[in-house]
Amino acid sequence: MIGSIKGKIILKTDKFIIIETIGVGYKINISPDTLSKLKKTNEEVLLWIHTHVREDILDLYGFLDRQELEFFEMLINISGIGPKGALSILGIASIETLKKAVGTGDTAYLTKISGIGRKTAEKIVIELRDKLEVSKSGTSLQGELDTLEALKSLGYSQNEAREALKKVSPGVDTNTKIREALKILSGK
């Protein structure tokens, strides 16, 4: 199994990159969040790799840090969630936000992810709640959901709103989140 790859990015698309190391180019599927952190081609990068093997496919999934890789592997061990689904889950929010949603049992937040229904969200919460080190302080993600809905009502797409929310200061009230997100979105 391949555990990590270090090399130069020779091709970057919206779903995968190709990293060349010792004359071999590896096609590596990555999340949108990881893609945004990789700035340019010819950049030297180290990615932690999950090798996914089926009878007719050998796919590589790359992550900049081990925490993201470990969360990805927990997600794909849940029945009904494959690697591409897990990658899309990782692309909508930070790992800490996803852990908070799981830890508090906030299935409403998880169902906002395209392709994740109520039953799958409940399954994620049930199977991951005990595996994750999250505080179960009862804090909900209602403020984040309210901010997301407010931004959508102002005409921003769900993806634009989620990307802006990832950059907002944590721990601020809903009105401040909306103001900060609007500043981020207007700066584009």
UniProtKB/TrEMBL annotation:
Keyword set includes Metal-binding: no
Any one Pfam family match given in the protein's UniProt record, by short name: RuvA_C
Region (Domain III) location: 146-188
Localization (cell): Cytoplasm
Keywords of this entry: ATP-binding, Cytoplasm, DNA damage, DNA recombination, DNA repair, DNA-binding, Helicase, Hydrolase, Nucleotide-binding
Molecular function as annotated in GO: ATP binding; four-way junction DNA binding; four-way junction helicase activity
Region called Domain I, residue ranges: 1-64
Domain Helix-hairpin-helix DNA-binding motif class: 73-92, 108-127
GO terms classed as biological process: DNA recombination; DNA repair
GO cellular component: cytoplasm; Holliday junction helicase complex; Holliday junction resolvase complex
Function summary: The RuvA-RuvB-RuvC complex processes Holliday junction (HJ) DNA during genetic recombination and DNA repair, while the RuvA-RuvB complex plays an important role in the rescue of blocked DNA replication forks via replication fork reversal (RFR). RuvA specifically binds to HJ cruciform DNA, conferring on it an open structure. The RuvB hexamer acts as an ATP-dependent pump, pulling dsDNA into and through the RuvAB complex. HJ branch migration allows RuvC to scan DNA until it finds its consensus sequence, where it cleaves and resolves the cruciform DNA.
Family: Belongs to the RuvA family.
Written domain comment of the UniProt record: Has three domains with a flexible linker between the domains II and III and assumes an 'L' shape. Domain III is highly mobile and contacts RuvB.
Subunit structure: Homotetramer. Forms an RuvA(8)-RuvB(12)-Holliday junction (HJ) complex. HJ DNA is sandwiched between 2 RuvA tetramers; dsDNA enters through RuvA and exits via RuvB. An RuvB hexamer assembles on each DNA strand where it exits the tetramer. Each RuvB hexamer is contacted by two RuvA subunits (via domain III) on 2 adjacent RuvB subunits; this complex drives branch migration. In the full resolvosome a probable DNA-RuvA(4)-RuvB(12)-RuvC(2) complex forms which resolves the HJ.
Protein name: Holliday junction branch migration complex subunit RuvA
